[in-house]
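User: Round two. Same drill as before: sequence, then structure, for each protein.

Assistant: Same drill it is. First protein:
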Amino acid sequence: MRKDQHIQFLTPQEIKRYQEACLKEELSYLQANSAFYSRMFREHKVDISTITCIEDLAQLPVTTKRDLQLYNDDFICVDRGQIIDYVTTSGTLGDPVTFALTDGDLDRLAYNEYLSFTTAGCTNGDIIQLMTTIDRRFMAGLAYFLGARELGAGVIRVGNGIPELQWDTIRRNRPSCCIVVPSFLLKLMDYAEANGIDYLNSPLKKAICIGESLRNNDFTLNTLGKRISERWPTLTLHSTYASTEMQSSFTECECHNGGHHQPELIIVEFLDDNNRPVKEGEAGEVTITTLGVKGMPLLRFKTGDICYHTTEKCSCGRQTMRLSPVLGRKGQMIKYKGTTLYPSALYDVLDNIPEVVNYLVEVYTNAIGTDAILVKVGSESQSDELVKHIKDSFRSKVRVAPDIVFEPIESIAKKQLPKMSRKAIKFVDFRDKTEI
């Protein structure tokens, strides 16, 4: 793997030439070492010498999550003795998939998070409090630790949850930055206010946020982002987007207008349902080809995440492609009463209603074979007036109103965080499906 953080400031033409040189190396490596891809090349009569530019990738089949689930071991390109770390995906739309990382892959992961931190303006003078888990086969927590070490910053591995321990650590060690799921910041503020902690004057000045979107498609703050920034204006929020499969991430710079692509780590395409590239400004499925991964590299892997992208030069000087917030996962798209929705649009409505403490969005196939939505709401105020207010809010924002039922707040909280889950669950899909 080549390390050159200045690549992101080159012209788009220079970045493209650089990536195409890396692509040739990647294809040769896959043909020589990947049982899955060498078989795919044979079966589809692919001559990799004819793939000379990024546009030529369209000649190749895509890789899906289903391929990873069915042929997991065939993607491993090294002897077992070279594997240092095993992680799994979160299993959002199916069974988790195991990923094997070599020593070099861990170095690449550290470099990626080094780039992520520096893009967000972190330096070796920062102390970073890690408010996410580093265990439970979770790649991101380890990546953040390795990246902080690469940066030369201090890192405190507190883990997720436990506001009391988080604030005790902040008081003792005075971290300037945290890695956090953004909705947890609301709990931190609630705890601080209940216990007389002046969080506005705390040493925390920057939060690198994972797992939940903070922004709308035009990069303005969404409801969650507004709630945090209005209560904690001295804390700067940076969104990130990443996945286990790509082993890299997109992070906002100080301009907060999209996550920056790291071109030395992945090639990114945006494809429609027929695997054709979409135009800039159109929603497409993020499809990645890893560069420099040795353990389990991927070629044209469709992530399932739907995003917009822009190639306009950023005010920070970087000329890399920038990614919008994730609209939703392809498998989570809902067609409800003639309207196409993603769960994030429903979350944004619910997060804007103070009486709603927590919720679950359930989608199922109704008696006539179409999508139906049931929202289970936890609230202290279980009234017909609140149901009407929730439905009116949905109609004004997304034009349709799902069914609403109340459940105890504690019951929903338990369903959101089952024992084996690494992420809070807000969406449950009960629809009849023939594929993942």
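Second protein:
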Amino acid sequence: MDLHEVIYSDAVPIESYGPGFFRINGEVIRGGALIHAKGARSWGGYDDLQTVLDMKPHVDFILLGTGAVMTPVPAAFRRALDAAGIGVEPMASPTACRTYNVLVSEGRRVAAVLIPLEATADDA
């Protein structure tokens, strides 16, 4: 197998994640996060719909990380994205992080909207 270094020439990759946080470009974001090629910011969850809708000019679709496991997208959230013409691909947050990094390394116009993994008793 040949290994090749991934180059993110026009993107900000997700470096790591863990219980309650995401590390993007050396910065730790606690709680939910919205990441796109040019940067990252906190995301307030499904009630923070406008932040996601504001991404429309910059992305073709979003990867929605729903936490440790894939869960259904709330109907109102999905309807609002559909009405705005923003495609959404739900998946577990770890999968969304990996998929996002692959897609932005290919130059794709994608964002990741992520719910963090929950802390467990072992994390305390």
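The helical segments are 49-53, 75-84, 93-105.

User: Perfect.
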